[in-house]
Design goal:
single chain, 117 residues, mainly beta, 7-stranded mixed sheet, 4-stranded antiparallel sheet, 0% helix, 57% strand, globular
Length: 117
């Protein structure tokens, strides 16, 4: 089992910035992909950004150029730096850990991000 604990959400005005963190603990595997997904009210959960163990990143088109995902393998922590936030970025943001060797998928409890106009 892997436990994921997110932090850093909150309320910010449009154009502002927030940094999300997600710390993983438990049966940590070296080869994985960690990432962030979000779910707005009435919408399906969608990918925001992912990063592999070797640093390969993938972003949703809607956040490219504004959000940056990074990870600290020594701390088993993934970060999401969110700049130039827009009201449409408002959602619950979930941390995800995908283990390649087992296909197991782990999720955090979610952290609310609210961007006011």
């Amino acid at each position: 089992q892997v436990q994921l604990v997110e932090s850093g959400g909150g309320l910010v005005q449009a154009g502002g910035s927030l940094r999300l963190s997600c710390a993983a603990s438990g049966n940590i595997f070296d080869i994985n992909a960690m990432g962030w997904y979000r779910q707005a009210p009435g919408k399906q959960r969608e990918l925001v950004a992912t990063i592999t163990t070797v640093g390969t990143t993938n972003y949703a088109d809607s956040v490219k150029g504004r959000f940056t995902i990074s990870r600290d393998n020594a701390k088993n922590t993934v970060y999401l730096q969110m700049n130039s936030l827009k009201p449409e970025d408002t959602a619950v943001y979930y941390c995800n850990d995908y283990i390649y060797s087992t296909g197991a998928d782990y999720w955090g409890q979610g952290t609310q991000v609210t961007v006011s106009s």
